[in-house]
Give the backbone structure.
Amino acid sequence: MQQENIRNVAIIAHVDHGKTTLVDRLLWASHVFRENQQVEERVLDSNDQERERGITILSKNISITYKDVKINVIDTPGHADFGGEVERVLNMADGALLIVDAYEGPKPQTRFVLSHALERGLRIVVVVNKIDRPNANPEGAVDKVFDLMVELGATDEQLDFPVVYASAVNGYARKDPEDGNMDMVPLLDTILAEIPAPDVDPDGAVALQVCTVDHSSYEGRIGVGRLHSGTLHEKETVLVVKADGTERTAQIRKVYTFENLGKVEVPEAHAGDIVAVIGIEDADIGDILTCPDNPVELPAIAVEEPTMAIVFEASTSPLVGREGDIVGGRQLKERLLREKESNISMRINELEDKSGIEVAGRGVLHLSVLMETMRREGFEFQVGRPRVVYKKAEDGSRLEPIEEATVDVPSEYAGKVIEVMGTAGGIMEDMASDETMTHLTFRIPSRGTMGLKTRVLNVSHGEAVLFHHFKEYGPYSGEMAGRKNGGMIAMSTGKAVAYALDTLQERGRLFVSPGDECYEGMIVGESAKEGDMVVNVEKTKNLGNQRSSTADKAIQLTPPITFTLEEALEYIEDDELVEVTPQSIRLRKRLLSATDRKKAAKRA
């Protein structure tokens, strides 16, 4: 039986094609905000990091009401590293708005999210966004989406998709790019007409599968999912079936449904709606809440395996505790195990020798978002170089994650980009050129993507666009060369001095400024040659009594190179660490003493 007063819609797209802006416009169109209300742009990107990076990291649920129909809208991340979020929340939807840039057309991430939506049989509505852009080609974008759907094996019914043309920034949607309509009504009408209502059994036994887990310091764990059948009441006793098959009973304390930008407590929720429940203390993603007398079975939620792992350790830096409040190994372990409960797409386990916690995720960005969150919470810790997660084939050979990388680059730099990709182990699979741009597709080991973006931008003068996402596990492709240049390693603990840095900058590039705290074993710069060199950053000029200090030429220092977390992780080698504090990102050797490093090199 269809619940005609509900629609569940996921919004999927390549990163930066305008999903979150479009949701803003739908909220305005359904009069969630007053006409004169001051509202920030991209209101759903509420997390600090989401605002700074300009990307969606966590999926969000909102609901709007249009013509007495409740439309539950799920905004999903567009970045492949957060694909675990997308896969889960598509379980709650009956249809999806696929947003495509009118100028760029479908991009690699469009393929990733669209393939998951088609697998689940969702009804797709194509929204061609940014039709106001110069050189926009809305019809061309629709043709490319059709070709992509054919390639992904869409059914005839899915290929007969409705198209809406929009400019989310300007707040209008149209059935035809030139029809002059200036509001979002055509899109809302299309959602009601084309997205199927949930086909559920309102009189059956209760069945709800938890797709995301929220956490409230006041209420505890909040399980969010779609009610597949029955009516769920507060204070109701349900059977909780865990992913491993274990069962127990629990009482639901409160039931919430989504309304506008928040949740509203209700005495009961009906089949087809997306609900949040409180009272299941150890609620996990994939848990099924069902009727104890007549349990309902639902298919398990499958999430792709992580491909990259990193080890978190308590900081052993001489400067530990100066900038962060939380420095202990026990607190670090507790925080990461708490993350394990709510983040199903990460695998978090303590190492056997108890020396650290290994966190495996989808890529460097996925891991660095967790680190950035923790440093903002006041944690100080150190991490090693990310390493890929290998698998064993049936014949015992080693398999490694292989990614598909696509590069859009001005044609004049295509040769240099191909050379860089080749040195990183990339094999070119496709090349297409038009008058100015060349589109390149490569198959590349995940190990080769470390630091790749910086090198591609360097050779293309910042004009290339690189995107890569996990494709499959393939045969191990041999050793890869690491960083060619050695590091400048500080020989003592103290503050860097301008006089010393002036002489060092002739021999390489610096990572520190005068007055920065340095310690023995810290990497303070990159040498122009191979091999590390130990340097003195505290050296001052000895002044005789016959000359005043002002008689010297003014020292001019080149500004130091500063690293973001992702850049630091991609820069370091196996014998180096990144020290992360709330205020600083420092690079250091694993063994701080030069003597210890020499002994270790001899043993190796």
Notes: The CA atoms of residues 394 and 475 lie 12 Å apart. The radius of gyration is 27 Å. The chain has a mean pLDDT of 81. DSSP finds 14 helices and 35 strands in the chain.
